[in-house]
Amino acid sequence: MSKLITSTPAADGYAMPAEWAPHARCWMIWPERPDNWRDGAVPAQTAFARVANTIAEFEPVTMCVSVAQFHRARRLVSGAVTLVEIATNDAWARDTAPTFVRNAAGEVRAVDWIFNAWGGLDGGLYRSWDDDHALAAHIARRAAVDRYAADFVLEGGAIHVDGEGTCLTTEECLLNRNRNPQLSREDIEQRLRDYLGVREILWLGQGIYLDETDGHVDNIACFLRPGVVALATCDRAGDPQTAISDDARARLGAMRDAQGRALEVIGLPVPSVPVTIAAREAAGVLVTHGSQPRRAGDRLAASYVNFYLANGGLVVPAFGDPNDDVARAILAEQFPDRLVRQIPGREILLGGGNVHCITQQQPR
Ligand code: KQY
Fold first, then answer.
1. 72 backbone dihedrals φ, ψ, rounded to 5°
2. Quick check: bond before 128 cis, omega within 30?
3. Which regions of the chain are under pLDDT 50?
4. Among this protein's residues, is 357 annotated catalytic?
5. pLDDT, tens only, 283-332
6. Where are the alpha helices (DSSP H) in 125-199?
7. In terms of pTM, does the model score above 0.90?
8. CA torsion sign, 180 to 65 to 25 to 9?
9. Do 341 and 311 touch, CB atoms closer than 8 A?
10. Percent above pLDDT 70 for the chain
11. Contact (CB, 8 A) for 171 and 214
12. In testing the pocket of ligand 1, which one of 99, 212, 219 has its CB within 8 Å of the most ligand atoms?
C-alpha cells in the first residue's frame, strides 16, 4: 500500500537522512540493455552481482530485474539478494529509484522525481525512459511507503545531503537547460528545501570531466560526515579535471554548511592515468538510435568518490590503477568503523557511472 501525498516532505517534518544513517535495505537494478552495456551486458551483470553480493554482507539488497533476465540474475546473485520483477529502461537505481525521507518518529516516505534520462531530447542518454520514470512509484509500493511526486526533474545522483540540513549539488547539472529550464536557481533551491528537508544548498560548478550525467555531484564530491567533504582531486597540469577540482576546492573552502560550520575537504585523487574505452569494449556495444555513442579512446568519468556506504561497510570501485590503493587507504582512515570493500568498477564505468550510481539506500 502506497498513497500519493500532495504536500511536501519539509511541510510534513520529513528530511533525507545522510547515507551513513542506518539502512533498511539497498535497491539495485539488473543491467541488460545491449546499447549501453557491452557484450549483451554479460560483463556488467557480473560486476553488478559482485556489488549486490558485497552489499548483502552488510544489509538487505533488493534487485529489480526484468522477467526475461530473472533466472540469469538468480544464478549470479547470492541467495541473500531478493529479486523483484519490474521493467526498467536501464540500471541506475540512484537516479530512478525514489529518494527516501524520514521523520523524527522514524517513519519513511519516498520522493518520486521526474526522470528524463539525464536531459530528455536535449542530450538525454536514451529514449524512451517511461519505465524508468515509473520505477520510483513501483518501488514505493513494494516498500509499502507513501510517496511524494515532485514537480521537477532531478536524479538522486545529483544531490548529496549531510542529514543536518545541508545539500551539495552542481550547477552543471541542476542549472542545465535540459533539466528544468523554467526554474531559476532560487526556484530550484526552494524545491530542494521542500523535498529534501534541507536549509542550505552548496553549489559546486562542474562534476567530473566528461561525466555524461551533466556533472552529477555523486561522482565528484560527497559528505563523509557532517562538516567533512570528500572531493575528487587531480594534479595533472593541463588536464581539465584539475581546473574543475581546484574550482570545487576553492568553493568548498568559502562555504558554510547549514550548521554554520566551515567544511574540511579530504582529497580523493582520480586514477593516475585517465581511463579510456578500449577498442574491443566499444565494439561490444550495440549502436541504436538515441543511445550514447561508445567510441574507442573516449575518456570515462572515473572517480573513487562514487562509493556506497552500507551498514558497517563501504563499497568503492577499483580501476586497476595505483590510486586504487590510495583511495582505499584514505577511505579506511576516514571510516575506521566500517569495512572497506573494493570491487572492480570498470564495467560499471563503461556504462556511464559507478557503485553509488547503481545503488539507492532505503533508511531504516
Ligand atoms: O551516473 C549515474 N548516476 C547515471 C549514469 C547514467 C549513464 C547512462 N548511460
1. -65, -45
2. yes
3. none
4. yes
5. 999 999 888 899 999 999 999 999 999 999 999 999 999 999 999 999 99
6. 130-143, 171-174, 185-196
7. yes
8. positive
9. no
10. 100
11. no
12. 212
